[in-house]
Write a structure and sequence with these properties.
By secondary structure, the chain is mainly beta. The protein is about 10% helix and about 50% strand. The chain has 2 domains: about 55 residues, no CATH class; about 35 residues, no CATH class. The chain has 2 helices and 7 strands; from the N terminus they run αβββββαββ. The N and C termini lie far apart (about 55 Å).
């Protein structure tokens, strides 16, 4: 059962031939299982230089992965691939949709591999 307030129902209503009707979320909705890989590490220490000065030094490392779908049911756009339909028409068109984890796009990730983002931390008191 989906609970909605009157305000959210009015905001999400779809006009059908001049009549405002709430959408049916169960009809034809595709279920995807998106997932993202993320890890974060933090290392810090405080150093008392004098009685009135303390330095706080540290580093944070974020490992941000890419989106993927549990059952590989997503597509990516490859702007450098040659369009096969354009070849048949004698046109040199670029750009093609490819399924993830397929010969055209062997990775399961939609945005490439993970990114490592170190961030230094510095503070004084």
């Amino acid at each position: 059962m989906i609970l909605e307030t009157a305000k959210s129902r009015a905001a999400s209503a779809i006009p059908i031939k001049g009549v405002m009707a709430p959408p049916d979320w169960r009809a034809g909705a595709a279920r995807t299982f998106q997932q993202i890989y993320y890890q974060g590490y933090y290392l810090a220490d405080s150093y008392r230089i004098t009685n009135k000065l303390t330095l706080n030094l540290g580093v944070r490392l974020d490992i941000i992965g890419s989106f993927s779908e549990r059952f590989d049911r997503t597509v990516v756009f490859d702007p450098g691939a040659t369009d096969p339909l354009g070849q048949k028409a004698g046109l040199n068109l670029k750009g093609q949709l490819a399924l993830v984890a397929s010969p055209a796009y062997p990775s399961r990730n939609q945005l490439g591999s993970a990114k490592y983002e170190p961030a230094p931390r510095f503070g004084y008191a």
